[in-house]
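Quick start: what a row looks like.
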Amino acid sequence: MHTNNALRPSKVIDEEVKWDKSKTIISKTDPVGTILYMNDTFEEASEYNKIELIGEPHNVIRHPDMPKVVFKVLWDNLKQGNNFHAIVKNLTRTGRYYWVITDFDVEKDDSGKITGYTGRRKSLPESVIKKIEPLYKTLLEIEKVKGEKASELYFNSYLQEEVNSSYEDFVVNLFEGGDTANIKEADKQAPTKESGMIKKGLNWFFFGETNPK
């Protein structure tokens, strides 16, 4: 689906929007990302109302600071029926931004065919944003100069050589305050235990009581 550019802000402002970060942003889309439902918190954070966004592609709120490869990995996982946790910077109606981490329910019919996605998004601790931003900036610069394929190649190599993990495990390690320089060694010593701790932490974050600073 093509983005409706008429809904996009004419200017990007380097300013975070104010919204209630104790709440969860919820939206529901069809299999190709068309918005079918959004809650009031989505309206508050994005500065769009439901009349504007229902029936529009979800990428209308994609921020230009986001490298495309992150969304490629996200959609590759969702299309396979997998939940996926990504760190995303979104664009508001007035050109401001807000950072979130994602969580999805993949909905299927009786035959197993994917019929849609329900997405939950929570605010992030500032420490996580500071750690992920340099990587995103590098990916975006490579994308601008060498193209999306080169950005993807670097992204995959970075995950393999620098952190020895999938993107999702890398994200959660940052989220839980882990030192990315030590991920490789920690995974060698206790990969199964670490994976279990990560998943438990994510469940607590999305479904427990928390208010990121």
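That is the whole record. The radius of gyration is 17 Å. The chain has a mean pLDDT of 85.
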